[in-house]
Amino acid sequence: SDLHLVKFRDLSYFNPTEWSWDFGDGAGSSDQYPSHLFSGDGVYDVCLTVSNENSSHTSCDTLNIGTTNTKDLSFTMDVSIFPNPVIDVTRVAFHNYLPTKGIIYLKNSQGQRIYSQALSQETNLDLSSLISGIYYYEIQERENVIHVGKIVKVD
Fold first, then answer.
1. pTM reported for the whole predicted model
2. What is the pLDDT of residues 6-19, one digit of tens each?
3. Closest Cα partner for 38 from 68, 3, 62, 8?
4. Quick one: pLDDT at residue 13?
5. What is the DSSP secondary-structure string of the chain?
6. pLDDT digits (tens, 9 = 90+) for 17-31
7. What is the C-alpha R_g of the chain?
């Protein structure tokens, strides 16, 4: 089975001084921004407990790695594409999903595929060669469409 390296970020408020990550596979970390190697595709419940001198708080989220049956997804895909509108380079970031065979396709207004790029947890798209306009994107995982939207290219 494939190994998948995932980078985690703590976005907590109130200046925590301690972090306790539970990656949902028996492993954990006390780093603020850990990376963890998952041993295969699957659904993992990842929890972070942050603490400071006043209190502690635990927050959990489900991480879906390479889920193949995307027609039965039980969660909303959280993807950001920023900046959008884009001048040259934009960034695609998955927040609750890790694509293992992900590809983004851009289509022009006639529906022709004019750009494609393999995706990881965070991927920069260099769109500097495209003319200004509206492009429709389709993100696929193993040929299943998992997210669609539009990107506006400006000069």
1. 0.64
2. 889 888 888 899 99
3. 3
4. 81
5. ---EEEE-----SS--SEEEEE-SSS-EE--SS-EEEESSSEEEEEEEEEE-SS-EEEEEEEEEES-S-GGG--S---EEEESSSBSSEEEEEESSEE-SSEEEEEE-TT--EEEEEEE-SEEEEE-TTSPSEEEEEEEEETTEEEEEEEEEE--
6. 999 999 999 999 999
7. 18
